[in-house]
Structures are given as structure tokens and as C-alpha cells.
Amino acid sequence: MCGAHATVRGFLGEIVARAESDRHIIVDMEAGLEHLSRGTGRHVSRLVAVLEPYYRSMETARNVATLASELGISDVVVVANKVRDEGDRTAIADFCRAHAMQLVGEVPFDSGLAVVERSGGAPIDAAPGSPAVQAVIALASRLSQPAVTA
Amino acid sequence: MSRSVASTYPLIRMRIAIAGKGGTGKTTIAGTLARVLARGSREVLAIDADSNPNLASVLGIPPSKAQEIVGLPRSLMQRITSEDGTTKAVFSADPEDVLRKFGVVGPDGVRLMVMGKVGHGGAG
């Protein structure tokens, strides 16, 4: 049992239990799966699995989705990132369909973003009009719906 | 521009966890999402629960300020023993106090809290 993860989980449990706390909460999870398996996800209502159009990344997202549903998070959705072309789009759509995963958004590959991130800035400040940032704005709107539809 | 778009969002309260293989851009999406949502009608709390934390920079918090962020200390969890003799760790502080003490406010008012250092041996 890792103390750092347990502390975040404890904090999350307390803050979401408070009715007066009406904030949106966004948790950037551990890259691997270990974090999820320790149960942090119990206190969230929706899990967004981000994947890239290559096999290992899609497999990881599938494992994350499975773990999440085992933890009782019924609302698991997928966002495809760094999508370059129709081939990427088809591969991801096929994978999601084959594993009954709900794809709710797509963020295009954006070389401009890589430049911003190398310099350590916020994409939304440095490149607000970039295709990737615009796609996240559209995603925010979609995730704001109680039930997400693709 | 995006502010007017965001303000039209329904008022549901979101509690979203973002996961994915390292390098997929999950932090970029998490941080940008937090900023976009914060332009709507609700405050946003962003929690960096990655043992390699870099959500601060995506949120636009300058490095000088990001360096000063203190991760959640484990001492907030306290071991209690129940009547049947079993012990368990419970979060033992007021979360709003914790947020005031350890949270950092970034652009668009996004509040960021960072997980404490993960303590597996030799990690550094």
C-alpha cells in the first residue's frame, strides 16, 4: 500500500462527500495501472481513458477501462489523442467497437503543441487557437453532458 | 471567445479521472480541460496524482510557483483501531483546510493540489 496514493484517495473521499463542495474535480492519474488498482477511482463519477492510435496504448486503455468498471465506475469513456489521419481514426474506432468502449472525443496530432510543451507553457495560453486546444474545448462541452453520447 | 462557449455548459458537477499510458498526452488533456471548465460557472479543483507530476505547467502555473507546491503529506492519514481490533487509515483533516493549505491557484482560478512523493525505495 502506497501512502501517497492512499492520502490522495482519503482526501478525495472527504471532499466529494461534502455537499457544499460543488467544484468540478479533475484527477490526473498515475500513468500506469497501479494507481487505479489501489482504488482512487472510487470517488470519481467518470473515467476518461486517453489513448493513442497504437496497439500498446489502446491495450492499456482497455485494461484501465476494465479495472475502472471493476471498481464500480460505470461511466468509462475514451478520448483518442494525437490522431493524424483517417487510418488512425479507423483503427481507434474499430478497437473501441470491438471492446465495447465508448469513444467520445478526438484530439488531433498537433505539432504546435509539442513546441509549447517543450517550453513549459500552457497550451491554452500559448496556442489557444490550435486544433488540439480547440478539440479539448469541444471535449469539455461533451463531457459536461450527464450522459455522454459519441 | 472560449469563455462564452464554456459559460453555456450545463451545471452538472464533474468528478473526472483521466488515465492512460504514459506519453499519451493525458496530462495535456487533463490540464487544458481544467482550464476550459474553469471559465464556466464552477470552480475547478485539479489533482495531480501522477508520481511524476507535471500538471502545473500545463495549467500555466509558472515554474517558480510550481516549485513551491507541497504535496499532500501522509500525516493527514491516521491509523485508527476499531472495536474489533482491526486498524485502518483514515483521512483525518478538514478537506477544505487542506485545500487552503496545500492548494495553489493558477490561471482561470484553477486550484491545483499535488500528491505527495511516492515512497518506493530508491525512487528519486
Overview in brief:
With 150 residues, chain A is of the alpha/beta class. Chain A has helices spanning 3-17, 34-37, 55-70, 86-98, 111-118, 123-126, 131-143, and strands at 24-28, 46-51, 76-83, 102-108. Chain B is α+β, with helices and mostly antiparallel strands.
Structure write-up:
The complex is a heterodimer of chains A (150) and B (124). Chain A has 150 residues and is an alpha/beta fold. Chain A has helices at residues 3-17, 34-37, 55-70, 86-98, 111-118, 123-126, 131-143; strands at residues 24-28, 46-51, 76-83, 102-108. Chain A has a domain at 45-143: 3-Layer(aba) Sandwich (Rossmann fold), CATH 3.40.50.300. Chain A is 49% helix and 17% strand. A three-stranded parallel sheet of chain A has the order 2-3-4, sandwiched between helices. The longest helix of chain A is centred in the middle third of the chain and has 16 residues, at 55-70. Chain B is of the alpha+beta class and 124 residues long. Chain B has one domain (2-114). Chain B contains five helices and six strands, in the order αβαβααββαββ. In chain B, strands 2-6-5 form a three-stranded mixed sheet, sandwiched between helices. In chain B, strands 3-4 form a two-stranded antiparallel ribbon. In chain B, strand 3 (77-81) and strand 4 form a beta hairpin. Mean pLDDT of chain B is 87; it is low at 1-8. Classes of the chains: A alpha/beta (150), B alpha+beta (124). At the A-B interface, helix 1, strand 1, strand 2, helix 3 and strand 3 of A face helix 1, strand 1, helix 2, strand 2 and helix 3 of B. Strand 1 of chain A pairs parallel with strand 2 (44-48) of chain B.
